[in-house]
Amino acid sequence: MDAVSAFILIVEDEPKLAALLGDYLKAAGHETAWIANGLEVIPAIRARAPDLVLLDLMLPGRDGLDICRELRSFSELPVIMMTARVEEIDRLLGLELGADDYICKPYSPREVVARCKAVLRRNRRSLPPEGAPLQIDEAGWRASFHGIELDLTPVEFRLLRTLSAAPGRVFSREQLLDGLYDDHRVVTDRTVDSHIKNLRRKLEQIAPEAPLIRSIYGVGYRFEGD
Q: Using CA atoms, how far apart are residues 75 and 72, in angstroms rounded to an integer?
């Protein structure tokens, strides 16, 4: 299996289409599972988190947008939404809920495989390398530092994920605020400072000699890890 082989969950209520996608993805070296009913998706993901979800918008039981909304409340695993509904409002809403990509039906299975490959590579580049002191588990919504699991709030996890994905880059408070809350509540810059303080404290309890998050006066914050 190549570097981007993955376990991909196909959520599609058309059996022939799901089978076709499964055949193409398996030929590309991926493992797949198929779910046709929207009510079964979240329990399946909690039981075994996939590396990527191909999520149809129109499903029996529960629609794809609602599933994506709940999924983003506890996981950042990659989602590619698939639908025959091409209205712009649906497309924007899908992406605002946290979808990583959007494919309109009818589509070529080869295109879907290519999109999956691109999203998986993009997602894996954002994760710390294996063996690094800090490890981020996107699907499980967990992080560990020097082998010790961190007890993080969802906001602290998002902050750490964002900062650690780009070591050396300085993020302004405004940039960090953009991805802080799912409900787009109005918060101040000082909210970021408070969460960063708590996050630093939890990291320094494990390794006080190696501060990972630096304050850049008048600008924002930078992650110092490799």
A: 5
**145 and 118 housed in the same domain:** no
The CATH code of the domain that includes 149 is 1.10.10.10
pLDDT tens digits, residue range 126-173?
Answer: 555 555 788 888 767 788 888 888 998 888 888 898 888 778 888 888
Q: Which of 106, 89, 108, 107 is nearest to 97 (CA)?
A: 89
pTM over 0.85: no
Provide mean pLDDT across the span 21-47: 94
Domain hosting 204: range is 134-223
Cβ-contact 50, 23 below 8 angstroms: no
Q: Where are the extended beta strands (E) located within 2-71?
A: 7-11, 31-35, 52-56
